[in-house]
Specification:
single chain; mainly alpha; 2 strands
Length: 171
């Protein structure tokens, strides 16, 4: 059994026919029967947007008549001068002689352990992390320690700590 639509005003309702009768029914079926040409054209136009309401792009009745983005370049000095700064945040930042201290990121438990494994503090730079990693790898490498198991474990811990810090974006 195959479904055949009942009609335009009966969405979700179907006749059940065998395949041959469905083909015959569909030959004579016209979704737009009874509609004028203008109604068919309107339906086809609305079908483009899935019969949802749309608005003309770029039209906003509430927008001020200022320059558009295409008329001003955001990177130009003029655009920065025209920028509204009602709370004075930008002017205060310009007035400061130096940059503010970067906010310290709160370390996760594993990140703190990784820094501890490398013998570093949370404020270590990328260069500090890499230098500590290289020194500890050389110191605890199995070839440098004659196969000492304790040193091998430390070697693995150093590698894991460095990889974790690398994945976390510290180096």
């Amino acid at each position: 059994m195959h479904r055949a639509p009942v009609g335009r005003n009966a969405e979700g309702q179907y006749f059940m026919f065998c395949f041959e009768h469905v083909k015959e029914y569909n030959k004579g079926y016209n979704f737009f029967s009874g509609l004028s040409d203008s109604e068919v054209a309107r339906y086809q136009k609305e079908a483009i947007t899935g019969h949802r309401p749309t608005w003309t792009v770029g039209v906003n009745k509430n927008a001020k008549n200022g320059p558009t983005q295409s008329q001003t370049r955001s990177g130009s000095a003029g655009a920065q001068a025209r920028m509204r700064d009602p709370f004075g945040f930008v002017s205060e930042a310009r007035a400061r002689s130096g940059r503010p201290e970067p906010r310290q990121r709160k370390l996760k438990t594993l990140e703190a352990k990784a820094f501890e494994t490398l013998g570093l503090g949370a404020s270590a730079t990328t260069a500090d992390i890499k230098a500590a990693y290289k020194d500890l790898v050389k110191k605890h490498h199995p070839d440098a320690n004659g196969g000492d198991r304790g040193s091998e474990e430390r070697f693995r811990a150093v590698i894991q700590a460095y990889q974790l810090l690398k994945q976390a974006g510290f180096c």
